[in-house]
Amino acid sequence: MALDWLYFHRQFLPFRRCGTRQGESRVGIGIWSVRMTRAVPPDPEKIIHERARLRILVYLASSPETEVGFPVLKQDLDMSAGNLSIQLKTLEEAGYIKLTKSFKGRKPYTGIRLSAQGEGALNRYLDEMESMLNAVREKNPGQAKE
């Protein structure tokens, strides 16, 4: 078997891949071996639960316009352009939003829309959060909302 190289703890180490199960291999470094598996797709709940992405989805769902421009979203959510573009990329890869790029006059324009998949995921997420809140409120009925 040929040796590969693994960057580990600031150094390159030789290792051999072995294992026969699909999607899994064992990596041997010297006398140690580590089981490696293929990356698991991200949990949709984790995608939505991150604060910035949740704010984006809620803003798009509650917006009277079907499409919101990047500068408007950036200003209203008070986010930097870099952070907003990274969060939008994550949401687009998950299929929760649709980005349209065009020109308005001579200026580039990026429009952002909530997709049907994104709307469904947001509704499921909000329902799950609501059920958890209700469970806590039922357990502690004496505490009033403030």
Walk me through the topology.
Blueprint: E1 4-8, E2 11-18, E3 24-29, E4 32-37, H1 44-49, H2 51-62, E5 68-69, H3 70-77, H4 81-93, E6 97-104, E7 107-114, H5 116-139
Domain count: the total is 2
Question: Quick one: overall form?
Answer: elongated
The Rg value, from CA coordinates, equals 23 Å
Could you give the distance between the termini?
66 Å
Tally of extended strands?
7
Task: Label this structure with key terms.
single chain, 146 residues, alpha+beta, Arc Repressor Mutant, subunit A, 2 domains, 4-stranded antiparallel sheet, 3-stranded antiparallel sheet, 7 strands, elongated, WH_DNA-bd_sf
Structural summary, described in words:
The chain has 146 residues and is an alpha+beta fold. It has two domains: 34 residues, no CATH class; 95 residues, Winged helix-like DNA-binding domain superfamily/Winged helix DNA-binding domain (Arc Repressor Mutant, subunit A). Helices cover 43% and strands 29% of the residues. The protein is built from five helices and seven strands. Strands 1-2-3-4 form a four-stranded antiparallel beta sheet, with no helix packed on it. Strands 5-7-6 form a three-stranded antiparallel beta sheet. Strand 2 and strand 3 form a beta hairpin. The chain is elongated, with a radius of gyration of 23 Å. About 8% of the residues have low confidence. InterPro entries: WH-like_DNA-bd_sf, WH_DNA-bd_dom, WH_DNA-bd_sf. This is Winged helix DNA-binding domain-containing protein.
